[in-house]
Design a protein that fits this description.
SAM-dependent_MTases_sf, Rossmann fold, four-stranded antiparallel sheet, 6 helices, Methyltransf_25, alpha/beta, 2 domains, globular, about 30% strand, 11 strands, about 250 residues
């Protein structure tokens, strides 16, 4: 098993409800268009497929999809949406687990490569992608750009969401290249103060290893892949110094 945090049954059961925005047609439409275009007439393999937020609609688009997922609880939620014959899922980690057959596309979305907490494991993830790709196939990663330029001297925390029902911020270990995402989510309709209202706040956190785009390019090179494209979002907008994330595509030489 890798160093990734293992998602619990409780987290898996509430995951989809917390991802309504990223599951909207405005987000999923361009995502599925982008991935389907790369898969072509071949098969796609999703590392860390989770509850099938992307894999299920990609399969509905007509692309045969296979998944690898570390959490049995997340896979159980996916299984309520689609059966095993339609979308097979293997329980295992994305750095070492191997599934049968070749793929024209392997993809890893929503910052999930950062769940691997060591550089060695992230390199192995690239190698595992290359292992599954047919010649000419592509590996795609969606990953945020570390917001370190927003850190004043001596500060280790950066907020990423301050809204009525959610407070989120990241704390950074700049020596080990690690971050912890902290979430305070409001539940119920009360004010949550002193437990006097119907609402309360649920706290959660997750650990990640952040990586720069250039570092990922080197990992790809180690795995025998060549960078083909880097954009700022699934709509293909240009990646610039102000981009908060990137979609990167590497190709296995024919």
């Amino acid at each position: 098993m890798t160093s990734s945090d293992l998602w619990s049954r409780e987290t898996a059961e509430r995951y989809d409800a917390g991802e309504t925005e990223t599951s909207s047609p405005a987000v999923l439409g361009p995502t599925v268009d982008f991935l389907a275009g790369l898969a072509g007439d071949g098969r796609a393999l999703e590392f860390a497929i989770g509850t099938g937020r992307v894999g299920v609609p990609l399969r509905e688009r007509g692309v045969p999809v296979v998944g690898i997922e570390l959490s049995e609880h997340m896979a159980a939620v996916l299984r309520r949406k689609v059966d095993e014959d339609t979308l097979p899922v293997t329980i295992g980690d994305m750095a070492t687990t191997v599934v049968p057959g070749g793929f024209t596309l392997v993809y890893l979305v929503y910052n999930t490569i950062s769940n691997l907490l060591t550089q060695d494991e992230q390199v192995e993830c690239f190698r595992n992608a290359a292992r599954h790709l047919e010649p000419g196939g592509r590996f795609v990663i969606e990953l945020g750009v570390p917001p370190l330029r927003f850190l004043p001297p001596g500060q280790v925390a950066v907020p990423f969401d301050v809204s009525e029902r959610h407070l989120g911020f990241d704390t950074f270990d700049l020596v080990e290249q690690l971050l912890v995402s902290h979430h305070f989510s409001r539940e119920g309709d009360g004010d949550g103060e002193d437990n006097g209202g119907a609402g309360h706040y649920r706290r959660a956190e997750s650990r990640h290893r952040y990586a720069w785009p250039a570092e990922l390019d080197l990992m790809a090179r180690i795995a025998g892949l060549e960078r083909e494209r880097r954009v700022a979002d699934w709509d293909g907008s240009p990646f610039t110094e102000d981009s908060g994330k990137h979609i990167s595509v590497w190709r296995k030489p024919a």
